[in-house]
Write a structure and sequence with these properties.
Length: 125
């Protein structure tokens, strides 16, 4: 019989962020993004090590992608588009924070422990 172990709070926050991503994808009618985010969410809830590894890898790629956003922001500010540059900086900061949080969260021992035991069927959700 599976035990009840509390899901780490940081993992609950990650699931909430994924939920917001799904909602935003649905609102913008980005169906592929919504489906991919739902599949990732299911993988996290099932405790899939593969999904955990993929999310860490995507987080690292996202950090590099956000560096490009900051370059675009600098170019916009340099050409006189201060408002557009500030919006790009804000978007870059939010994207960087999300990617950094995903990487940090999924590398924590308590999250790894919970996901491992969930994948083995030792934990009920």
């Amino acid at each position: 019989m599976a035990a009840k172990r509390a899901m780490p709070t940081k993992l609950k926050v990650l699931i909430g962020v994924l939920g917001v991503s799904i909602a935003l994808a649905l609102l913008s009618q980005s169906w592929i993004s919504a489906v991919l985010n739902v599949l990732i969410l299911i993988g996290v809830l099932r405790g899939s090590e593969g999904v955990r590894t993929i999310l860490i890898g995507l987080g690292i790629l996202g950090l590099f992608g956000n560096a490009f956003v900051f370059v675009v922001a600098a170019m916009a500010i340099a050409t006189g588009g201060v408002l557009q540059g500030l919006v790009a900086v804000l978007a870059g900061l939010l994207g960087t924070a999300q990617c950094a949080f995903f990487i940090w969260c999924l590398r924590q021992r308590d999250v790894q422990f919970w996901m491992f035991h969930r994948s083995m069927g030792d934990i009920d959700v």
